[in-house]
Amino acid sequence: MHGLAQGDFEMALRGLLGEGAPLSASSIGRLKAKWQIDYEEWKRQDISSLEVVYQWADGIYVKAGLEKDKAALLVIIGGLTNGRKVLLACESGYRESKESWSGVLRNLKMRGLSLGRLTIADGHLGIWSALGELHAQGKEQRCWNHKIRNVLDCFPKRIRAEAAEQLKKIPYAATLVECERLRDMFVDRYRKDYLKATEKLLADWDRMVTFYSFPKEHWSHLRTTNVVESPFSSVRLRTDAAKRFKKVQNATAMIWKLLRVAEKNFRTLKGYWLLSDVYHGKTFVDGVMKQKNRGIERLAA
In a 10 Å sphere around its CB, with 0-12 CB exposed, 13-18 middle and 19+ buried, how is residue 41 labelled? Predict the structure, then answer.
């Protein structure tokens, strides 16, 4: 779990404890096998009691024996009505394909989970196609960090900083109208010379601004997939140090174990007191809960 290969233990322990060091390769192997068993049991647990409001999904590529066939770890973290974040899925999949994501989502449904109101993910078509079939009623938000990187890649380095300064203001506008005004200003400025960049910004725009239909207190969580990517920074310290996994199963089980450890320190979602309102279908406009017209309600009664 801390980046050592199995063969490293014997050398390290001999230096500390002498030639009679008690931890053998076979005992380490048994511990790793126990992780695999625990992981398989976890994937079968009933999760019907979880009240999920949001889910963040991302495909993470790690340097740990997963590179040969471009396998990715498909990870989903859920935000619950009490503000807690929990790991819902961690499975290997091929190139974030529709089939791979569909398998992950079906498994969650088989375990009794009702997916939340909003899914936050990157721009890969696989996750959106799978959601369209298996969770069509849910809303969808694309990650702004991924979008900004993709747009900036279309600019030459000499003006990338200038474009980034304007681009990063767009998702932080206070209202949807202001957001689209900043978008149009950006497009007007760069369309003539950098058409590809402006087309990338406009692509799938409706999925870029869904967060405006949810509480303003939650926007910092909903704009990006950082909820998944942040715990993976510590995971990569281990996997990048090791780079010795021969099997996808071994890497997946170890990374699952690391994420389960990290889960204990996940921070509570901001504005947790509004999560129940979202879960029960309350309407928000520009981050503010829409109040029903009481006069109309009385008339209808």
Answer: exposed
What is the residue-wise DSSP string for the chain?
Answer: --S--HHHHHHHHHHHH-TT-S--HHHHHHHHHHHHHHHHHHTT---TT--EEEEEEEEE--TTT-TTTTEEEEEEEEEETTS-EEEEEEEEEETT-HHHHHHHHHHHHHTT----SEEEE-S-HHHHHHHHHH-TTSEEEE-HHHHHHHHHTTS-HHHHHHHHHHHTTGGG-SSHHHHHHHHHHHHHHHTTT-HHHHHHHHTTHHHHSGGGGS-GGGHHHHSSSHHHHHHHHHHHHHHHHH-----HHHHHHHHHHHHHHHHTTPPPPTTGGGHHHHHTT--EETTEEPPP-HHHHHHH-
Query: pLDDT for 229-262, tens place per residue?
Result: 888 776 766 665 455 555 666 678 888 888 888 8
CB 243 within 8 A of CB 74: no
Residues in CB range of 4: below 8 A, 6 or more apart = 12, 241, 242
| Residue scoring higher pLDDT (235 or 283) | 283
Alpha carbon of residue 32 to chain centroid? 26
Q: How far is CA 139 from CA 44, 117, 119, 211, in A?
A: 27, 6, 6, 9
- The amino acid at residue 130 is A
**What is the model's pTM?**
0.85
| Residues 258, 230: Cα–Cα separation, whole Å | 13
Q: In 3D, which of 51, 155, 48 has the Cα closest to residue 108? A: 48
Whole-number CA gyration radius for the chain? 23
pLDDT digit string, tens, across residues 145-175 = 999 999 999 999 999 999 999 999 999 999 9
Q: Rounded to an integer, what distance in angstroms lies between the CA atom of residue 224 and that of residue 233?
A: 15
